[in-house]
Amino acid sequence: MRRERLEQMGSKIVRELENLGEAEISTDTIGEAVMAHLRELDDVAYVRFASVYRNFREPKDFEDALAELAAEDDGKATPHRK
């Protein structure tokens, strides 16, 4: 099931990037698209990816990412994603 969801996410990202109509797409654009979709799919996967993509160097970086997720979850009806 998880693999199917990741494949669906990958397909969505590819379609979104293709819809930009650009001949070349920056790694920043790709990274941000991946982060946005991971955030919706799985909080832990999001933080893991963000830690590498944003080059976390200290615990405060993780705390900030978790605080972002918590703030986002406070504004939603479903506080726990899977």
Describe the structure.
With 82 residues, the protein is mostly helical. The chain is built from 4 helices and no strands. α3 (43-53) runs antiparallel to α4 (59-74). The longest helix is centred in the N-terminal third of the chain and has 18 residues, at 2-19. The N and C termini lie close together (11 Å).
What layout of secondary structure does this protein have?
Elements: H1 2-19, H2 27-41, H3 43-53, H4 59-74
Helix pairs in contact: 1-2, 2-3, 3-4
Keywords:
82 residues, disordered C terminus, mainly alpha, single chain, 73% helix
Task: Quote the beta fraction.
Answer: under 5%
Rg over alpha carbons: 14 Å
Element order: H for helix, E for strand: HHHH
Mean pLDDT: 88
β-strand number: 0
Low-confidence runs (pLDDT<50, min 5 residues)? Answer: 77-82
What oligomeric state do these chains adopt? single chain
**Helix fraction by DSSP (H/I, runs of at least 4):** over 70%
Main pleated-sheet profile: none
- Based on Cα principal axes, name the global outline: globular
Give the end-to-end Cα distance, rounded to a whole number of Å: 11 Å
How many distinct helices? 4
Structural class: mainly alpha
